[in-house]
Design a protein that fits this description.
The protein is mainly beta and about 140 residues long. It has a single domain, classed as Thrombin, subunit H, CATH 2.40.10. The chain contains 2 helices and 8 strands; from the N terminus they run E-H-E-E-E-E-E-E-E-H. It starts with 9 loop residues before the first strand and ends with a helix.
Length: about 140
């Protein structure tokens, strides 16, 4: 039985990328809505930070990026070259991070390295790029 719980298939890749923490635009709400509206506060401490990384696993919904970890809920722009498509600019949210490299045992007890980095859920990515990723993951 598979332990995979993700909705979208993913593909292992090694794509260089640039990650930029872009922040969330301010949204003006009607006073009646603002009085009852609650949301999780996005990270603002890393806005403007630009750094290199490598996309290690990619799906139509998100990616694992090996890089210096960013704060949880940082809104990021990820730029990369996708084979058979070209340049991609995606926007997403850091949902998890691995602060340092580690290892876990596989089914046979052999070590599996897990690099430090971030898990990004894509908010926006061109439809055509998502279609190319879906084909790669089949």
């Amino acid at each position: 039985m598979s332990r995979e719980h993700r909705r979208a298939r993913r593909v292992a890749v090694n794509l260089p990328c640039v990650i930029e923490s872009v922040g969330q635009p301010t949204v003006a709400l009607h006073p009646a809505v603002e009085a009852v509206y609650r949301r999780v506060a996005p990270d603002t401490t890393s806005i403007g930070r630009i750094q290199p990384g490598f996309i290690r696993d990619l799906s139509t919904n998100g990616a694992f990026i090996g890089c210096e970890p960013l704060p949880l809920l940082a809104r990021v722009r990820v730029g990369f070259e996708l084979p058979a498509y070209g340049s991609v600019d995606a926007v997403g949210w850091v949902l998890w991070s691995r602060e340092t490299d580690c290892e876990i045992p596989d089914a046979l007890g052999d070590p599996v390295p897990l690099p430090r980095g971030i898990g990004v859920l894509f908010e926006a990515m061109p439809l055509e790029a998502r279609q190319v990723v879906a084909k790669m993951a089949r």
